[in-house]
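Subject: FAD/NAD(P)-binding protein structure
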Amino acid sequence: MKIGIIGAGPRGLLMLNNLIQNFESSDHDNLTIHLFDRAVAGGRVWKVKQPISLIMNTPANELSLFDDGQKDALSVSQWCQSETSKEFINSLDVDNKDELLTAVDKINDRSYVPRAICGAYCQWFFQQLVKQIKDNDNINLAVHFNQNVDNVEKVKDDSFVVSVGDVDYPVDKLVFSLGQQENKLTKDQESLQKYANDYDLTYILPGEADEADLSTITSDQNVIIRGMGLSFNDFVSRLTEDRGGYFTDNGDDTLTYHASGDEPTIFAGSRRGVPYYPKAISQKAFNENYPAVFLTNENVDKHLKDGHISFEDFHTLLRLDIEYRYYSFLFSLKHPEIDVADFQKKFKETDNHNSLIGSYHLPTEEVFDWDKILNPVAGVKISTLDNYQENIKTWLKEMIDDALLGSKTGPVIGSLEMLRDLRDNIRYVLSNHLFTNDDLVHKYLGRFSSDMKFLSQGAPAVRSQEILALMDAGIVKIIGPQMQVIGANHKFITRSAFYGEEIIHGDALIEARTNAPVTKVSANPVITSMIDKGLIKPLPITLSDGETVDNSSVDIDIKTDQVVGQPNLYTWGLNTEGLYFVTSAIPRPGVNDSILRAGDDIAKGLLDIPVENPTIYM
């Protein structure tokens, strides 16, 4: 039996682990596993050699590649705090070893870990799997790292040939999880790239921030950054701290930035015109989740009509869970006169939540305003760039203060943390096709997906503190909503549609985001070769008017994660975003994580082991 795994990032390593754990339960006498990646174990995102300043947005104690209960399992937090991590890092042949050792010494359960450290953990985890394989005479592992898979072809018996350069590797079954990848350029990107080449400007396409060449950007230049999510923070870090600047703590939850003089002036913007919400200081145990009260699977099923829940009903249930948590935290923090348990009982039972909240006679600014949460600058009169800076700084300071209270204390950021706990509940709706196709395309896949990233996928609070300090230092300026960018007068120029006469000229334009994992526009040779040969296709969605559009996901059977029409081909992870939800996440230990369950199911399918209760909402 030969199985191929394309992609050695976290999902590929999870699959390798599950194949090893399940092999003895299969009927196969021997197993050869071919593991392919254009980088090394951990993949491209989690490479060890990257700036130590680039950090994750999940606490260390909520990350693990081991299955729950697995022998000798260590979460990222446990590994970092053990001598094992230091011994392993010392064994690495890398020139940033001292940085890694210094960083790992500072990590506790609630630390937000440098991505380079997570990369070292991935490599250590892989080493443990290699040791297990060496102890098993019936399993062989063939590693193909730092090599590109150029082609995937199916042969007559439904097996496959994976080609790397001039070498072909036949496998009986194949699973791929490619992680972040390149997409074909849009017309806008092609135009901007050509303009940059014509006028000797710097244009950075979407991709990994640590890999971008920023050497052409000098201190006397203006840099335009489009996008204010995680990649925005990464690029800002590279253009400031990594150029010799540093922050000092003022002792009052604020920072001061000390410039090196090598920083450019950064103008950042987006459609929304507001940086992502910060992540709270974690107060949760590694296995602690807030269960849904309203968006439960049972409640969703009660709202089904003709097998579907309306997007409005779904959104109401989700909002009620956020508001329930918000007011619980708010009353505990600021209103000792209110019995929180009594409030929670009434909030669960009432049909008129607005009336109940009104009965507490709260100040207007304490009433949860969903529209204000989604658009923090709504109603703010924006007349100039400088005027807008003050508005953003005020909002950032409020959110930082809330986030620093902690994930079980801060009303706003603590309640938004609930969105992470609700991921499986959202996955249940998505992967069981409980939206109508019209609601899925017109309401979920568009604005809602963007809103969820804005609310729940931001960087740790320290990043917001840094942005605030950089704004105070005049190095970072935030552009108002509805950012517009074009090339003109031999420069990139940008403005907010809210004050269109104030034009900013830039010498560099950075697209601060990774590529969306959209099957149809992928430029990854694994995807393109399989599309060209008819092995995979995007998941089709037929709307009520007869129009068919493509989901971003590969078309798979949700009960098995097999590619439709291909009994021996499986995929999971980012290649299924749009069918599943937040498919880039690393599993969380101790909570029966659906990613771990799905990995076990797929491994059993690859090994021809029956799966009694498949995970269909990972």
